[in-house]
Amino acid sequence: MLNAIKRAIIVILGVLLQFGFAIVIRLCFYKYLGIITLFYTIASILIVLGILKNSTRLSNDLPWIILILIFPIFGTILLFTLGKNFSKSKLLKNIFQYEKKYNEYLVQEEKIKEDIDNKQLDNINYILNRTNYFASTNNEITYYNFGEKFYPELLKELKKAQKFIFMEYFIINKGVMWNGILDILKEKAKQGVEVRILYDDMGSFTMLSANYSKELAKFRYKMYYI
Prior knowledge:
Blueprint: H1 2-28, H2 33-54, H3 58-70, H4 72-87, H5 90-102, H6 110-118, H7 122-131, H8 147-160, E1 164-169, H9 176-190, E2 194-199, H10 212-217, E3 223-225
Parallel strand pairs: 1-2, 2-3
Helix pairs in contact: 1-4, 2-3, 3-4, 8-9
């Protein structure tokens, strides 16, 4: 929580610096406003070019580019405090490389496609066309309308894992529920089960420290983190 507060303070300082800089320039250096504006515009463009050079997926980097071009100081501070882990992640670069490779093997079965068209399942067609991931048959899904029903079933299924556990969350918050899951993951990792956890750093901004992945790494017998 302390690290989350520190990161929030950095963001607030970035906003204050951006507007403070703009006010000072207009009050004290208005004669050189054109030159100063040109200077930090060029600096912003250079930073954006650096982002483009190292970009693995432009759609993910576009918000940073827009932010830096509109608010150079604030955007740059935010990039280096929140975005640096993403932009420099070798793991994510490898994921994108492998994604290109396995896309060659993603081929929709014609019979399933014909069935979707015949039944006029427009929502599924839309998802297929937008995501480039394809539909399959013979799937089984259990719907839980309340977390109170889902949680004990989740723990039960995690305990059954023999080869791997891959989990993805938008938000992770330390507490009774997550600790219950984590205890099982640590035990499974000891048993040689491959464990991978994917969570959103921004979504967990106020919940976890910036170094939470390193905390998980302490339990990494065969436990992996992303």
